[in-house]
Design brief:
- By secondary structure, the chain is an alpha+beta fold.
- Among the domains are: about 110 residues, D-Maltodextrin-Binding Protein, domain 2, CATH 3.40.190.10; about 100 residues, D-Maltodextrin-Binding Protein, domain 2 (3-Layer(aba) Sandwich).
- Helix content is about 25%, strand content about 25%.
- It has ten helices and 18 strands.
- Helix 1 packs across helix 7 and helix 1 runs antiparallel to helix 8.
Length: about 325
């Protein structure tokens, strides 16, 4: 069952507006606004042909969905409520946009795109890059709010076995399903160049399966974002490490929408994200949940990586 989190519960409010009788001709009263919780009531413009009409503009409900089992990025907490980085960011966005009622849901990662397409969700946020979002049916927002730095996780006891991607040749590595057709994915590139001794790639994303198969020897590694090495070690009681073979992906993260979504909603959310970056809110959330790792690679990502080679080659956690 999907778990829902309501940022605002809009209760029915009854507003009684006492209109005085105005005598005489040509004495038009000034337009006035009255606002109830969740509803804006505005007196009609007599010049627009709606003499005396009252225009109700209800707050739009926006359903935001993220994944349900990827702590600390997005997950269901012990109370069964959505939690994590994605949830805290959209909560902060909602605080800046009172014209919308945001409903937050955490669902299986594999259902996100289908839910967006079938209008069960209006916005989704979970490691969505531009390449993943800009498709026939979907589009990405313009404002980056996170960066994915993905690497290969291994058992800590095997850390000295891997110094290059080639060290995984003939072994099994689990990768996100999105990686299967991603141009430039290092494991795919290696296999294309070494067809006689490839890396066995299976596209499995469930964290529990990845860790369990790593422990039992069914898998030799799995790809995941850098900060997860700590959270997974704590969550599953297994000492994990990142292989010192370089990052398998570095890219910006954006919200994902349907192609036919109202451009105003996208612009409003982008504007809120920009404010949260400028006032340090996203920095605070990311630093607190992701062990102080940097996120803001706006601009030339490759330039930042060139200046911080230790971020790719060393595991500093």
């Amino acid at each position: 069952m999907k778990k829902k989190r309501y940022l605002r519960i809009i209760t029915a409010a009854i507003m009684t507006v006492m209109l005085g009788l105005v005598s005489g001709c040509g004495n038009g009263g000034a337009a006035s606004d009255a606002t109830a919780e969740g509803v804006t009531v505005k007196e009609g413009n007599t010049e627009g042909g709606t003499d005396g009409a009252v225009e109700d503009k209800p707050v739009r409900t926006v359903v935001f969905q993220t994944a349900d089992s990827y702590a600390p990025t997005a997950y269901l907490n012990q109370d069964g409520k959505p939690a994590g980085f994605e949830v805290e960011v959209i909560e902060a966005v909602a605080e800046l946009l009172p014209q919308y009622e945001f409903i937050i849901e955490a669902v299986p990662r594999e259902s996100l795109d289908n839910n967006l397409l079938s209008r069960k969700a209006d916005v989704i946020g979970f490691k969505m890059t531009k390449a993943v979002s800009e498709t026939e049916n979907f589009t990405a927002g313009k404002e980056q709010y996170d960066t994915i730095v993905e690497r290969i996780f291994i058992l800590a006891e095997n850390v000295d076995e891997y110094h290059d991607v080639a060290d995984f040749a003939g072994k099994t590595v689990y990768a996100f399903p999105d990686e299967e057709n991603r141009e430039g994915f290092p494991l795919n590139v290696y296999n294309a160049e070494h067809p006689d001794n490839p890396i066995h790639i299976e596209y499995i994303s469930d964290p529990a399966t990845c860790v369990n198969d790593l422990v039992t020897g069914k898998a030799d590694g799995f790809t995941r974002s850098q900060p997860s090495v700590i959270s997974y070690s704590e969550r599953f009681g297994v000492e994990l490490e990142t292989a010192k073979v370089g990052a398998t992906q570095i890219d910006g993260i954006f919200y994902k929408y349907r192609k036919d979504e109202d451009p105003q909603l996208i612009a409003d959310i982008d504007g809120a994200l920009k404010t949260l970056k400028e006032n340090g809110t996203i920095d605070e959330i990311h630093g607190r949940l992701f062990y102080g790792t940097p996120w803001n690679f706006e601009g030339d990502i490759s330039e930042w990586v060139h200046e911080h080679p230790e971020y790719l080659k060393e595991s500093e956690y």
